[in-house]
Predict the 3D structure of the following.
Amino acid sequence: MLGNKSINKDNHLEIAGCDVVSLAQTMGTPLYVYDEALLRSNMQEYEKSFRENYPHFSLAYAGKAFLCSALCSIIKEEDWWLDVVSGGEYYLASTANFPVEKIIFHGNNKTNEERRLVLREGVGRWVVDNEVELNLLLEEASSYASYKVPLFFRLTPGVDPHTHQYITTGKIDSKFGFLLGEAENAILKAIQSEDLEVWGLHCHIGSQIDHIEPFLKAAEVMLQFMVDFRKKHGFVFRELDLGGGLGVPYTDEEKSRFPSSHFYVKEISEKVKEMCGELSYPLPRLYIEPGRSVVNTAGSTIYRVGSVKEIPGIKKYVAVDGGMTDNPRPVLYGAKYQAHIGNRVAGEREKVSVVGKCCESGDVLIEEIELPSPSPGDVLVVEATGAYNYSMASNYNLIPRPGVVFIREGEPELVVRPENWYDLVRRDITPLE
Ligand SMILES: Cc1ncc(COP(=O)(O)O)c(C=O)c1O
């Protein structure tokens, strides 16, 4: 099992001391459930590792992995920054009273509305992704912002992290960021502007990365760029943001595959210190932006089993009351998950396929898994769904999206209510008679 889970005397699964059977009964299904203590301890582990290894750093949580107002409060309490990638994420954070001066604003195609909102309201670091955006910023900054806009420039370091192609972002062929050869003039333009302030550089090479080398390679490329830039133009970048991307296990089998956050922080810190020492470059403030590795293991999804269909000699399909609408990752990336029958964890097992309720044959959550005779009415718990599930959920087939519960000191607290059918029609404009 992953995270803080156990089996109680009734043979029920407990998440952080909460019986999933009573959770399903009281809160309904499907339901995203987060162990708040585990989520916080994942953040604190990053913090501790940096304190031990690097003199000045900022940790920014990547909101795209999972964001809601209650999580914003936790990020604020843990004193992290927040990485947002859209006007919507920015709006959520600011309505949850997250300090805008600790927001990093990303995006490869920031719309007029998004740029102007952020310029007006304020931002910690604005990540310029491309030339078109820079020119718009040069035009708009003085009209919309009453401060010098603090900038990072996103570069593509040309590093292949060997992860799924849909979550690879740092290779030369990427829609994100400036090519190294093209960044120089853009950065110079920003340095010369009275309305902008260049603080540093950013890269993000991809997600669910299972080895350290690509991160070290990316740090090396970025630092070399900084050193070359200083040599040519005499300008010193004070900050370096290496993005997120550390992978995490989704199944027990994968437990030993991924480096710990501690090892990852230690290695990148050492790399940066070593290179800066050799090249006599002032140590930049280091930022990282983990998302998945903060929230994934802390989250699970609870479903109710509905129909069960056996095709003799071929397969047994176990259908749950959710599916690709609350977890599109198996369909998108062929992602693998593990699950338990929450009301009968131990028992004689049989091979089944766990599927959703959408009108797509591809709506398969787990292609093959051994579970103790799943039957209608059982509670099925899929582990490690904390990242890129809630945030990627859809209303396909007009299925309402599940609510979110945080377990705090053994007690469940609803932090996002489930959608209802009215939520699905409330934006429709009634046709005139
Ligand atoms: C710019 C940026 N930072 C951080 C992240 C978070 O990555 P992860 O969830 O893999 O840590 C992403 C994810 O795509 C990203 O695009």
